[in-house]
Amino acid sequence: MSETSTSATNRRSAASQPDHARLNFDLDVDVCVVGGGLAGLTVALEAARLGAGVAVLEGRQIGWNASGHHLGTVLPGYGLPVGEVIERIGLQDTREVWSLSRQGMEFIRSIATEENMPGISLSEGALEVSNVDAGDGLVRRLQMLNEDFGTDAEAWQVDRVRGELKTDRYFQGIHYPKAFQIDGRSYVHGLASLALRSGARIFEDTPVVGIDSSGIRKRIVTPSARLRATHIVLAGNVHLGAPLKRLSDTLLPVWRYAGLTEPLGGRLAASIAFRGSVIDSEGIDHFRIVDGDRLLWASPETTWAGQPRRFAGAVARRIRTVFPELGRIAIAETFGGAIGQTVHGMPQVGQLRKGLWVASGFGRQGLNTSAMAGQLIARAMLWGDDRWKLFSPFELVWAGGVTGRVAGYFVGLWSRGSSAAAGALARHRERVLVQDRLREVRLAEANRQAAIRPQPRRPPPAGAPRGNPPQGRPRPIRPPSPLPTSEPRVPADRGEGEGI
Ligand SMILES: Cc1cc2nc3c(=O)[nH]c(=O)nc-3n(C[C@H](O)[C@H](O)[C@H](O)COP(=O)(O)OP(=O)(O)OC[C@H]3O[C@@H](n4cnc5c(N)ncnc54)[C@H](O)[C@@H]3O)c2cc1C
Q: Most buried in the list 6, 58, 357, 373, measured by CB within 10 Å?
């Protein structure tokens, strides 16, 4: 069992990635990007396209962490529920921040399609499903997404969701027809190739061990070379370390793991008809079909670095819990990566001091948001575009160090546990409701039969007054109304696509 690739397509394309040699000579550039993940490479591509001399320094290899090991789902919005963003920055600024997140999506779609990246396998549509019977909240949220945020989204009732996903775990859903998915590894390497073609230079195996950002020309130190640059962009996510330890300390690292099943044949289509990504509203499960009949599924999380292969069993059990009819599941590959969670849930995008920029903290929804941050920062550095200031209210907050990780682990367990309990309760209520209705139907049928069948004459009990038996029909119990199509309800304060 391999634990590096995200799909069979990836496995084939991974072999042909170009080599980016270690930097072992001194260099002068306009922009030095620390980190060769999605965020760093997008900044590099955009800055190079705007004419800057750019160097990307990657401590290991391009996309070795989360950027090369994700599920490739591209949604609008952020990890923070939209209601909370409005509370922090007001409706007007939230609209702007939202529209930036959609621009991040469009950026990915345009370069993935126009540049015809090899192996990108773009497919359309994503579905966010509620783990509980959610009702009116969904309608309110949809109105907000459609009217206030101009986002294409439609409500799916329970029947429709269950027509596509054969499980009683999910209730209503929000369908995003313009969301899409791509092959994660192909995308990050495609970005690197484009950045190179646009003139950026990329050096792997080149960790940045120190920076001096005080002067106009800033200094960057690596084990084998020194650089000078007008701008430094810190895009190292949770592994940034030495260059600015205080910045790393503002992120809670969360390792998320995923598995790719062996081909499941026809039984997969019998359980899952939906071809886009599925994300549950609690952010627990996230899956999609790849290569026709295999399932790519992300779920387990830890706040320490684990071996992805050790989570193969957990992924298989989770799939069977949600789709018991799939039967035995064999996991062919596992993978995982560390994501950086900020305390407030929004990404870190901005300028720490003149010429020192940060692009990190993208959490579980890092594709559209890192693309957005890359564009925003490149334009800020080279055109003076100051829209990055929209993110200033989400300042850097210490994530609590080791204590924060331990707390984060228990909070994660607790919220998954309480979400599982809420889901179990919702399913229990649904079963009770169905049983009640069946009982009513049986009772109504019995009454109907009793009403039309001629009543047998019984001899009156001894001592009873003699005479004609009572006339008239027994009053039938009114048959139950048909099952109401319950109004979908997803917690009103959740933002679009925040379930990843
Ligand atoms: C299993 C899984 C599934 C996911 N699925 C999705 C999904 O479907 N959709 C979605 O939107 N998001 C998803 N995500 C989240 C997304 O992958 C991340 O948010 C995103 O990749 C973060 O990108 P990044 O560039 O900030 O960080 P990283 O990928 O961590 O890249 C940072 C890079 O910086 C380098 N670096 C750090 N410090 C230094 C230094 N001092 N010197 C040199 N280099 C340094 C690191 O080596 C690393 O390569 C998923 C994540 C996981 C783990």
A: 373
